[in-house]
Every structure is written in C-alpha cells, then in structure tokens.
Amino acid sequence: MLADDERAVALVAEARRRGMKVVICALAITEAVHARTDMAWLRWLPSRLRVVAVGDEEARAASALLMAVGLHGHRYAIDVAVAETPPRQQFPMAMLTSDIDDMAKLCGDRIRLVAV
Question: What global pTM score does this model have?
C-alpha cells in the first residue's frame, strides 16, 4: 500500500501545484480503512483536501444515480456516494480511484477516471 499512498500524495501535490481544488467524499475515508492502514497518514491526507460530507441531498442524488444505472445500494452504497461527489464540483475534473470497474459503471463517461 505504501506505493499507492505515495502515488496518491504525489497526484494531490501536483494537482494543488496546478491550482486545482482536490476534493474527497467523506465516505472514501471510511472505505480506505483496512488492517494495514497507516492511520496517521489517513488522518493527515484529508487535512490537505476539501472533505465533502454526505447529507440528505447527497444521499438522494446517490440513490437516483443507483436507480439510473440499475445497481443495488447494498453493494454500491459507498461507491455511489463517492461517484456522486464529482458532478457537484467545478469542471474540468478527474476522479482518482482504485476501483475503475465500479466507478465506470457509476460515472459512465461523465467523469474522467484515473487509476491509482
């Protein structure tokens, strides 16, 4: 995971250097946790980003997106909340993701996906 962490930090740093806003869905932070997660890193990285909360409006938009693409919330609940975040931001944009397959199902061609 260290290589992925380093790549993510480098991509965030480059985006910020270019004057881009870097945004993360709050649920992506939860999704990133596993047995080998460096919790200090996980606390630090979001402090460098704009963390977008998932409230009622975002949940309704995510539900509509699930219905539109014919997927089930039980499996895609976090992914759809993450996928719903970029369209609410300023364009142009790209989404960094380790889950290209699921994000492609949810985002279609609306968002440029970048594998990390």
Answer: 0.80
CB 24 within 8 A of CB 46: yes
Average pLDDT of the segment spanning 90-108: 86
Structural domain harbouring 17: 2-115
- Structure confidence at residue 1 (pLDDT): 41
The pLDDT score that the predictor gives to residue 11 is: 82
d(CA 7, CA 79): 21
Express each pLDDT in 12-40 by its tens digit.
Answer: 888 889 888 888 899 988 888 888 888 88
Q: What is the CATH classification number for the domain harbouring 79? A: 3.40.50
- DSSP-based three-state secondary structure for 108: coil
Q: How many domains does the chain have?
A: 1
Residue pair 85/48 in contact (Cβ under 8 Å)? The answer is no
DSSP 17-64: HTT---EEEHHHHHHT--TT--HHHHHHHHHTSEEEP--HHHHHHHHH
Helix (H) or strand (E) holding 96: strand 94-97
